[in-house]
Amino acid sequence: MSDTIIYHNPKCGTSRNTLALIRNAGIEPQVILYLETPPSRDQLVKLIADCGLSVREVLRAKGDLYEELSLADPKWTDDELLDFMVAHPILINRPIVVTPKGTALCRPSEKVLDILHQPQQGAFSKEDGEVVIDAQGQRRV
Prior knowledge:
Blueprint: E1 5-8, H1 13-24, E2 30-33, H2 41-51, H3 55-58, H4 64-68, H5 78-87, E3 96-99, E4 102-105, E5 124-125, E6 131-133
Parallel strand pairs: 1-2
Antiparallel strand pairs: 1-3, 3-4, 5-6
């Protein structure tokens, strides 16, 4: 089993780019399709804490469900927001990556480079053509 885990949504471009960057470092991560296999409430609390983010920062603010549930309203407590995220995993922002060097919500996808324990093994461009790693293996800023 890999020591790198990605909570992944294959329909999300940022998630796909992040997974590709992990693989470009020669790492085959454990891929958790979190919409099919969501983290438990305790796992989610730990992931959020390990990211060093607030619950609201990990709440996905895009999409119809966020609007329908009026989740922008500050009346919701962290516990209530966690309950919504557990009941509706689409509300968990992605991708979250766990490595031996740390845990991060990888938005933008190149944030994963800060927590990978192996260097990139070749050039890499995002799906939209943006160069992230040049031909010399250097990160483009």
